[in-house]
UniProtKB/TrEMBL annotation:
The protein's name in its UniProt record: Chemotaxis protein
Gene3D superfamilies registered for this protein in UniProt: Methyl-accepting chemotaxis protein (1.10.287.950), Periplasmic binding protein-like II (3.40.190.10)
Region (Disordered) location: 1-20
Superkingdom field: Bacteria
One of the Pfam families matching this protein, by short name: MCPsignal
Domain annotation Methyl-accepting transducer: ranges: 28-181
Family indicated by similarity: Belongs to the methyl-accepting chemotaxis (MCP) protein family.
Species assigned in the record: Thalassospira povalilytica
Keyword DNA-binding in record: no
This protein's UniProt keywords: Chemotaxis, Transducer
Length: 589
């Protein structure tokens, strides 16, 4: 940068020595000043991207520490669960062995009793067999005696008597056999043993169930830990994605500034061609060094107003299908402004947190700047070199949750939770004022809830999915961004997310348009304010508000109510009149 300044001074000296007029020198210096301002803006934007990356890295550090703690705790849980499993295994093995031995002893005892009974039965059967043999012999004798019937019948009577005696003996032996073969005691013993076995098995089952319950509790704890780790990983991935984007933006802006600085240095190296080459440099980068340049007049001359807008702001400026025109609250307002000015509306689509940069540099080297930012912009001293319009819409700053997640109903319920927001410096400020604490402000007193993490999203396409898919537990967001998404059946998130009623802030949120805070933009800003005032009472404006946020909210807040001595039309008018006096420009009545 010092080399560039030296070259500019040298060019001015050479021009004087060559007899250049004072007016030529002034023109040259204005051109150099415009070019240096342009490069300075690039470097400031690179620094802003670096600050965003620093914020993301702080949150990554917090989440990484949480992840490390979760892994350590899980490791301990696994070690404890392994010990318990070994203990359960040993206890079960010992208990089962003991119960098995008891069962074996009972069965052996029953077997011995049955063997004793069997031996008795065998003896009885042997006696019965002997009796049978005796009866058979007597029957034979009776037959012989019968053959000798007649006078010898008395001998048969003797045999008959012996047969009776034998029958009596058989009956006695039969009774003895009944007693010996009676298995009722064995049956009772068996039943008792079975009862004991059942009781033992029930006891064993209870012991095993208790041990398994302990294991189940251990593994449930591990599952919870692993779930926490999974959540940490998901958040880290979100943060790393944002950090990667911020890093890419920083590199892009630094490379851009370095390239243009070298080009400018080369342009000013030769005093004889410096003015001509400088004019070419300014034209290539759409920079204006003419003090009479007026942006509103330029817009009307070209018949087109370039409006910087975020293309993926559901509810504000978005399209559901590629190639569709942008729709949403801001898109409708921007078209109404262009119509009121009598020019065509050209949307310059760019990431939301970079939109104000487009008032000073294009979306890429060689592209024109935007005339105005009309895209959910709350006035803040964070945005440098910007002048704000009057308020065009008021809205609630809403707390959103996954559908039917009744555990989150207010900010205090966010303790230990992950909250998502848009990468908006105003959002950080208002949440801190409402008592939320996170890594960046954890030591500030007066907190009502300590967040596990606060994730700021620059990629607006991720907002709704982040909540619906569980990357964050809740989202603090401008109501129109989630109102349509939650309530319109055409929305991919209908029924998956919901907006809690009311405003989480004591006062409504509000949006303004923005232009570059330089004299050339004063007439444009004054025209925008005139449009806002005239459009406010119209049915068209009421329909826009109802469609995209459910109702029109009326209030009186403006950029003048914010801290930091912000610039609006009144302040810009003072700069404009001073500029006109300095350059002798006539101001039309």
């Amino acid at each position: 940068m010092e080399q560039t300044v030296f070259s500019a001074d040298q060019a001015a000296d050479d021009a004087r020595n060559g007899g250049a007029s004072e007016a030529q020198i002034r023109d040259l210096m204005r051109g150099i000043s415009a070019a240096l301002d342009y490069i300075q803006h690039l470097l400031e934007f690179a620094n802003t991207a670096g600050e965003s990356q620093d914020s993301l890295m702080r949150e990554i550090d917090v989440r990484s520490n949480n992840l490390r703690a979760g892994l350590d705790e899980t490791r301990r849980e696994i070690a404890n669960s392994t010990d318990v499993a070994h203990e359960v295994q040993n206890t079960t093995r010992s208990t089962v062995a003991s119960k098995t031995d008891a069962i074996r002893t009972d069965l052996e005892r029953i077997s011995a009793e049955l063997e004793t009974k069997a031996e008795g039965a065998n003896k009885v059967l042997g006696a019965i067999e002997d009796i049978g043999k005796g009866i058979k012999l007597l029957a034979l004798n009776a037959a012989i005696e019968a053959a000798r019937a007649g006078d010898h019948g008395r001998g048969f009577a003797v045999v008959a008597k012996e047969v009776g005696n034998l029958a009596q003996s058989t009956m006695q032996r039969t009774n003895e056999a009944v007693d010996l073969i009676d298995l009722s005691e064995v049956t009772q013993a068996l039943r008792k043993s079975m009862a004991n076995i059942g009781s033992d098995l029930d006891s064993l089952g209870s012991e095993i169930e208790a041990s398994l319950a302990t294991l189940q509790e251990r593994f449930a704890n591990m599952s919870e830990r692993l779930s926490d780790i999974s959540e940490h990983n998901q958040v880290v991935f979100e943060l790393l994605s944002g950090s990667k984007d911020a890093s890419a933006r920083t590199r892009n802006k630094v490379t851009w500034a370095r390239t243009d600085t070298r080009t400018l240095a080369t342009t000013l190296a030769d005093a004889g061609t410096a003015q001509q080459k400088l004019a070419g440099f300014l034209k290539t980068n759409h920079l204006h060094d003419d003090p009479t340049f007026d942006r509103l007049a330029d817009i009307k001359a070209r018949g087109k107003i370039r409006i910087a807008i975020e293309p993926a702001f559901v509810g504000l400026s978005f399209r559901l299908r590629p190639g569709d025109p942008l729709r949403g609250l801001d898109a409708d307002y921007a078209r109404a402004l262009a119509k009121w000015l009598g020019v065509e509306c050209e949307f310059v689509e760019h990431p939301w947190d970079l939109l104000t940069e487009l008032l000073f540099v294009g979306t890429k080297p060689g592209s024109p700047t935007a005339d105005v930012v009309w895209s959910a912009l709350p006035p803040s001293e964070f945005y440098k070199g910007v002048a704000y319009s009057d308020t065009y819409t008021y809205l609630n700053f809403a707390l959103c949750r996954r559908a039917a997640n009744s555990s989150i109903n207010r900010l205090a319920d966010l303790d230990g939770k992950v909250l998502g927001i848009i990468n908006d410096p105003v959002a950080f400020t208002v949440l801190e004022e409402q008592g939320l604490r996170w890594a960046g402000n954890e030591n500030k007193p007066g907190g009502i809830a300590r967040l596990s993490n606060l994730i700021a999203y620059s990629d607006q396409t991720r907002l709704h999915d982040a909540l619906a898919d569980g990357a964050v537990d809740a989202f603090a967001v401008d109501q129109p961004i989630f109102h349509w998404a939650a309530n319109n059946p055409e929305s991919p998130w209908h029924g998956r997310i919901e907006v809690l009623p009311g405003n989480i802030l004591p006062l409504p949120y509000y949006y303004t348009a923005a232009v570059a805070a330089d004299p050339s933009s004063y007439n444009l800003l004054a025209a925008i304010n005139e449009f806002i005032a005239g459009f406010r009472p119209t049915p068209e404006r009421a329909a826009i508000e109802k469609l995209w946020q459910g109702q029109a909210i009326n209030h009186h807040l403006t950029y003048k109510d914010e801290a930091g001595n912000l610039i609006g039309a009144d302040e810009l008018e003072t700069l404009y009149h001073a500029h006109c006096r300095k350059h002798g420009i006539r101001i039309d009545a």
